[in-house]
Amino acid sequence: MKEFDLVVIGAGPGGYVAALKAAKLGASVAVIESQQTGGTCLNRGCIPTKNMLHSSGLYHEINDNCVAGVSADKVNLDFNAILNRNKEISSQLSTGIEGMFRSAHVELLHGKGQIVAPGQVKVNDETIKAGKILVATGSVPLRPPIPGLELEGVLTSDDILAGAGRRFESLIIIGGGVIGVEFATFFNDIGCKVSVLEGLDRLLPNLDRELGQNLGMIMKKRGVDMALNAMVKSIEKTENGFQVNYEQKGTMGSAQGEAVLCAIGRKPYFEGVFAPELQPETERGRLKVDENFQTSIPGVYAVGDVSSRIQLAHVASAQGTACVEALFGKGSQMKLNLVPSCIYCRPEIGSVGMTDAEAKAAGIPVKVGKGLLGANARNLIIGGDRSFMKLVAHAETGVILGAHLMCEHGTEMICELAQAISNSLTAKQLLQAMRPHPTFTETLSEALNDLCAKLG
């Protein structure tokens, strides 16, 4: 029987990062993966969707040539070529991870792993011994019990990225969260008539209110139909596609489209990971873990979507790193409670820390500073939409508590503000840095000046 210090089930961002870190700390490591190395993020999530948005953004920019003074005839978008490019990129990244495994002497076992006893994992027909076991099996698309959701042609993000999608004439998207918003951006860019149905009162309901409200106005301007506070009741097949019936403030409504994308969210996946006689505690469908990521089964740990309240690839990687550092004698320095969120719509959204509403609900006095990009030179050059930067600071100390950016390259600039919050920097300290001209980040200085004026 093979024996390892650590056996990781799942080679996604949580699993492969944890495995490589453990190997670097001197542990003997095996990773079990039943599908492609890299998990959902590399193969059916973050990476392929960003490639699709890159392609649709280019297509949109070329066709919308009045601002830049550039024109082109017969611009073509090849949907299958985009999907093939997805595969190429995912394969290249997956191959790279496997190469890192070989260099670090991490053994990769292809198959479905099952924990049959504490310290024992079965993969295919072989049982291996493990000093510690880490479950990092991720999540799958959520499909709630809505009548008609099982109909052929009602898709999930996984289905589209696996090749079931095409250049639809019209598409109904159920869900206005991150997945729904990014796919709405892509299909709207390529000329598809998009309808978004969201059960709450705005898009991106988990983020700062102004972000979702502003994005909703931008999408409506681009021709996206939106129904907010819309609870989907049923889906029906029609002669030309589908009809989605929903209730909105006591009134029934419907949306018609060639296809339906269910983008309500994702649920933790650990089916078959534990033997029937060895069932761990769960909490709201997730594996329940303590502050050290240990499940209710001694020696069995879990990180990422399978156990985390926040389902993001960088959260899974950070948790995987923190877990193995604690297991193999090195404390983690990362603050796991400070999580940046990035949405790759247009304009991009980057958010980190507290919103002003969250701070007030917690009894924390705050001041808010804002900078608008209406007069920002770079934003004018690209013909950018209504964009802004919003900062939240403690009213008494001036320490930055939150940052919410809706602008070009907002997903990159949010890192500077995450670092500021992590180190308890004040608005005045951030103003000490000179920001070059012409850049989008100049507006950050405007937001900081506005904030400092309010702080006094």
- Rounded Rg: 23 Å
Q: How would you classify the quaternary structure? A: single chain
The separation of the N and C termini measures 68 Å
Number of domains: 3
Using the coordinates above, name the CATH class of the largest domain.
Alpha Beta
Mean pLDDT: 95
* Percent helix range: 25-40%
Quick one: CATH superfamily of the largest domain?
FAD/NAD(P)-binding domain
Task: Walk me through the structure.
The protein is an alpha/beta fold and 456 residues long. It has three domains: 3-141 and 267-327, FAD/NAD(P)-binding domain (3-Layer(bba) Sandwich); 154-264, FAD/NAD(P)-binding domain (3-Layer(bba) Sandwich); 347-455, 2-Layer Sandwich (Enolase-like, domain 1). The chain has 13 helices and 24 strands. Strand 23 (388-394) and strand 24 (400-406) form a beta hairpin. Helix 3 packs antiparallel against helix 4 (79-104). The longest helix is centred in the N-terminal third of the chain and has 26 residues, at 79-104. It starts with a strand and ends with a helix. The model has no long low-confidence stretch (mean pLDDT 95).
